[in-house]
Amino acid sequence: MTQKDITFVADFLTEHFNEAPELYNRKGKYFNVERVGQYLKDEDDDLVSPPNTEGNQWFNFLKNSTHLKESPLLFPYYPEKSLHFVKRQMEGVIDQCLQKPADVIGKSVHQAVCMSLYKTSQSEDSTPQLYKLPFLWNDKTSNIHYVLFTILENSISKIYILRRHTDTSRSVSNGILAVDFGNFLNNSINESSDSRCYSCLDAHFYDDETVTVVLKESVEQEGKERVLAQLPLS
Q1: Cα separation of 201 and 159, whole Å?
Q2: Residue 145: pLDDT band by 50, 70, 90 thresholds?
Q3: What is the Cα gyration radius of the chain?
Q4: Residue 194 near residue 209 (C-beta atoms within 8 A)
Q5: Which residues are bridge partners to 148 per DSSP?
Q6: What angle do CA 16, 48, 44 make, to 5 degrees?
Q7: Which side of the chain, N or C, has fewer Cβ within a 10 Å radius?
Q8: Confidence class of residue 207 from pLDDT cuts 50, 70 and 90?
Q9: Which of 38-42, 81-85, 89-93 has the lowest average pLDDT?
Q10: Strand partners for 162
């Protein structure tokens, strides 16, 4: 150890482990513990060396503010307690705040409709992921909720659009439909249907009336592997 290291340790011991007669009547060791470690102990006991808040601008501000001093919006301060104690207090308050909304929302949710999209085998083998690209969109103008998705096993060239009215008592026409991209980008009917077939890589709503899709050509050719298309819902 260098002389600098020894001096540092000596200064640390001198500052933090001086005898403290006022602590003699307390259980355990009667000297000041290291001031950082006391905050991290998972105990409900008061701190041995609580912080000195004199001159703290925030506390002075609160003390001089008649509106904020008793405000229920401010989390109470416990200068004599460790961070573990404060953490448990805050978790309790947060749990209490979230419990009522959770009960209300939970009781208000119910199944509006049930649709069978696909069937899987009953074997014990892990079922492959068949449902892909779920994207949600809410059209506030017409009060219709949309879900875009694809089913891999059925047809990778199709994208499904499910729509429901936000008022569950009302229905909409074509509640679910499929858009088959297939060979819709062929320039003429003379082109082979197998020569340019497309599958959907991704799909999002661009706005209330337009869907943006990223298509992949099944027979990849240089410079023609991906297509970005804007499709009107109509």
Answers
A1: 10
A2: very high
A3: 33
A4: no
A5: 135, 161
A6: 140
A7: C
A8: very high
A9: 38-42
A10: 147, 176
Q: Helices (H) and strands (E) in the chain — how many of each?
A: 4, 7
Long-range contacts of 138-146 (CB under 8 A, 24+ apart): 138/166, 139/208, 141/208, 142/208, 143/167, 144/172, 146/205
State CA 19 to chain mean position distance: 50
pTM beyond cutoff 0.70 = no
1-4: long-range contacts, CB 8 A cutoff, minimum separation 24: none
- 49 in Cβ contact with 35 (< 8 Å): yes
Q: Tell me the three state secondary structure of residue 10.
A: helix
Q: How many CB atoms sit inside 10 A of residue 171's CB?
A: 11
Among 205, 201, 203, 230, smallest CA distance to 144 is for: 205
Listed in sequence order, the residues at least 6 apart from 82 whose beta carbon sits closer than 8 Å to its beta carbon are 38, 39, 40, 41, 42, 43, 47
Q: Indicate the pLDDT class of residue 191, thresholds 50, 70 and 90.
A: low
Alpha helix ranges (H) inside the chain: 3-16, 57-63, 66-69, 83-108
Give the SS3 label for residue 42.
Answer: coil
Interacting residues of 2 by C-beta distance below 8 A, sequence separation 6+: none
Say if CB 81 and CB 90 are below 8 A apart: no
Nearest to 137 by CA among 230, 207, 202: 207
